[in-house]
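Ticket opened by: R.M.
Priority: normal
Category: complex prediction / small molecule

The reporter submitted a protein together with guanosine-5'-diphosphate-rhamnose and asked that the result be attached to this ticket for the collaborator who will pick it up next week. Submitted input follows.
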Amino acid sequence: MSQRVALITGITGQDGAYLAELLLSKGYVVHGIKRRSSSFNTGRIDHLYKDPHERDVRMFLHYGDMTDSTNLIRIVQETQPDEIYNLAAQSHVQVSFETPEYTANSDAVGTLRLLEAIRILGLEKRTRFYQASTSELYGKVQAIPQNETTPFYPRSPYAAAKLYAYWITVNYREAYGIHASNGILFNHESPIRGETFVTRKITRAVAAIKAGAQEAVWLGNLDASRDWGHARDYVEGMWRMLQQDHADDYVLATGETHTVREFAEKAFAHVGIALRWEGSGVDEQGIDIATGRPLVRVDPRYFRPTEVDLLIGDASKAKAKLGWEPQVPFDTLVRDMVDADLDLLDSVGR
Ligand code: NDP
Ligand code: GDR
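Result attached by the on-call engineer:
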């Protein structure tokens, strides 16, 4: 069998990096789209990259952007992928309230542009398509837990853009017979999670506070509950979806939910700091029991105009049809993220 070729949009992001690693380990040729940036943005994949002049090079990067149709069509034409993983997105929910039009352009219309590229180039029967859909689609949740049949109720410009992307993926599957699947993924984190998502913001702060380099961490809604898994497990699920005979939509989740407060508590506990909670709402504080110092504080700046209060997924379809199950428990995830941030701080300090 000839070498399989994959194209990953968003290869420089958290999931793109884990997915590239997985596909390379399976023998794929991996093409990735990266954006032009004034500073390096390939830190998460530098360990996978080889100079194109070396032998056995299987990963190639192309400049591109989800807002540029001509660029996407050209890259798909040049790379002739067997599988496209559409991970590129303005992926920050709070930022989407500030940049709603850009978020719609890249996350919603960007998905359409890629699907159209497949069609324009006559690749409907050859190229399989994965869409990075999200538990944010459930928004104001209509059922607990959420599965593939739970109605959507988006609560942000990000989620509304991803709703379009979800349905256009379903539509191109039904209209043109493209093997196009949605992975409805619940939150997944890792040591290479973007620094402004709440888990990584907390674990970086815990490391810095422990080292005496930071006083406290300012957070928003401590009551929000999320179903947090490990990104490495979730990219395996993406790949499995594209290996099925028929395209379909699947939830990937752990089936457990924890509040932001609980995440912070566990992260501090891992470095030997026990917190007690005082006050409520904007006055709530996480106090270090040993010293009486407030280490977690609330800043309403981080509250969202509309919030998603509680997510908990039911991934039984993925278990039955893909044989997929998450491997990394919540406690291990928190511990690994804190340890990685302690190591990072240590290596910078050296
Ligand atoms: P990241 O934010 O870490 O990565 C996003 C990637 O998209 C980066 O490579 C980024 O490039 C790229 N990108 C952003 N905008 C554009 C654009 N206009 N054109 C081209 N590339 C662009 O996200 P994750 O890896 O965490 O998530 C991957 C995908 O999965 C996203 O679509 C996200 O919305 C979705 N998702 C994520 C979940 C999670 O919990 N992580 C859960 C469910 C869905 P750059 O590095 O230059 O910024
Ligand atoms: P989310 O992730 O919005 O679920 O989207 P994020 O980590 O940003 O927020 C999770 C919850 O924590 C609350 N929160 C804070 N969030 C941030 N970022 N910063 C804070 O200081 C803070 N304090 C409290 C939020 O209000 C929220 O309730 C992620 C992204 O990866 C999306 O791309 C993806 O689709 C979903 O997960 C599933």
